[in-house]
């Protein structure tokens, strides 16, 4: 069972990163193409944040996988792996878009224009802000997501 979990985790992680990178690159290419240093720094920070969120969500994915596997419902356990990865992805992207708005509120500059002008400081500030948001909010979101799992009560 442990080796199957590792295979699923690897598959989910690779798919998650591919989709995240494609989505984020399409977003950043609307700002500047090819990517400049400022956009590259921000993209790197955002990918780190996406990874933090997937890591936190994968903890409950693993727990649910083993719970349902031991309950002879392996497919449901695998399904929850993908559900939690999807929730991590949605949370990561929504948090990324929120962080863009937050930086626009906090700074007088138009962030997209400044990133297009290669404002490295703004890229660093936004990247670090996004990572901090991920560290602070991700675990709370995983606890909330864990309420999706239906743990039946078995008689003694």
């Amino acid at each position: 069972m442990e080796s199957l979990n590792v295979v699923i985790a690897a598959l989910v992680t690779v798919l998650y990163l591919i989709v995240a990178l494609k989505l984020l690159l399409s977003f950043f290419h609307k700002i500047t193409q090819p990517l400049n240093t400022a956009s590259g720094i921000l993209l790197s920070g955002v990918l780190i944040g996406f990874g933090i969120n997937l890591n936190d969500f994968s903890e409950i994915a693993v727990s649910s996988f083993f719970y349902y596997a031991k309950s002879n419902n392996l497919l449901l356990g695998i399904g929850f792996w993908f559900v939690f990865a999807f929730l991590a992805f949605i949370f990561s992207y929504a948090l990324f878009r929120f962080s863009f708005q937050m930086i626009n509120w906090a700074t007088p500059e138009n962030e997209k224009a400044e990133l297009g002008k290669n404002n490295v400081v703004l890229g660093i500030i936004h990247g670090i802000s996004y990572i901090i948001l991920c560290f602070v909010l991700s675990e709370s979101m995983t606890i909330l997501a864990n309420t999706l799992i239906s743990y039946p009560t078995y008689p003694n």
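The CA atoms of residues 42 and 127 lie 5 Å apart. The chain is about 80% helix and 0% strand.
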